[in-house]
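Our consortium's second objective concerns turning raw sequence data into structural hypotheses that experimental partners can test. To show how far this objective has progressed, the report includes one record in full. It was chosen at random from the queue rather than selected for favorable results. The single chain below, 157 residues long, was entered without modification.
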Amino acid sequence: MTALAGCRGTDSATPTQTRERTTTPGADSATMSGDLDLREANVVGVQTERQTGTVRFDVTLHHDDDGEDGYANWWQVESLDGTRVGRRVLTHPHSRQPFTRSDSFEIPTDTPCVVVRGHDQTHGYGGQAMLVDLDSGATRAVRQGSDRRSFSASECP
């Protein structure tokens, strides 16, 4: 499957709370803007679908895009140790918040859990990331801070 070239995506994510928590597939896994620093690229929702040889990620970000100098410029999928698996580059600001963009990456079938992180041009990493159980689809929101960190399997949802 090839990456989507345009910016077609859903803008239907609904806010919930920022606390670290586990959600189940289909549950609302977005985050209330009142609890997030919107100057940072916050991952507020992730849905996954295993396909032949790849996993499709539908990632919802919430960021106060303030023009060409400070927008969310990518989200990426990493293994728990922080190794990048794939990155979805965002080439312009998004005025509708939150917004969802999709991409597919090759992930070994024996990888049970990954991290999805957002990034913005001004602050780099920060805000909220998501741990994602690729078998169940459950997610867990975590504050990532400005320095990326690795996660242990016990932190996965």
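The partners drew two points from this record. The chain has no helices and nine strands. The domain at 22-155 is CATH 2.60.40.730 (Immunoglobulin-like). Both points have been shared with the crystallography group to help prioritize constructs.
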